[in-house]
Design brief:
Rossmann fold
């Protein structure tokens, strides 16, 4: 893992229906924990998207993977990005992945990641609180954490 990085890579469904989840849940939780969120769809770059994703994951301290889906099925990109982060441990690096999922679709999560502990949330505010607590417990305070 990149212990010096303040960046957290966000893997999630970039649909308008998920905007509040990011803006009221994931983003403020990561900032409150003392880190900077990185959403690839909001980064200006001129590279092939897959190469940019790989570079940003490698640079990140950890990854948040929200596997919430709709009736069309699983978000393949989220699974790919979480799997890549997990695979880095075979190269001598470990990037923690914190999985999250909206409660009403947790039963649809693919069996390959069901073995991992997921933050199961109902509202963006619920997600924020749970994510702040998980980051503190598993990763620790980030370099940008503001003293209380």
């Amino acid at each position: 893992m990149n212990l010096m990085s303040k960046q957290v890579f966000i893997a999630m469904w970039f649909d308008a229906s998920m905007n509040d989840v990011y803006e009221k849940g994931i983003e403020p939780a990561i900032k409150e924990a003392g880190y900077e969120p990185m959403r690839i769809d909001r980064k200006q770059h001129n590279n092939k998207i897959d190469d940019q994703i790989i570079d940003e994951i490698k640079y990140s301290r950890f990854l948040v993977a929200d596997v919430t889906q709709d009736e069309s099925g699983a978000r393949g990109g989220v699974y790919y990005e979480a799997g890549f982060a997990h695979g880095l441990k075979d190269c001598g690096r470990k990037i923690e992945v914190i999985f999250t999922c909206r409660k009403d679709v947790i039963d649809e999560v693919h069996f390959n990641i069901r073995q991992y502990n997921h933050i199961i949330w109902e509202t963006p505010e619920d997600l924020k609180e749970r994510l702040v607590n998980r980051i503190a417990a598993v990763i620790g305070d980030g370099p940008l954490k503001k003293p209380k």
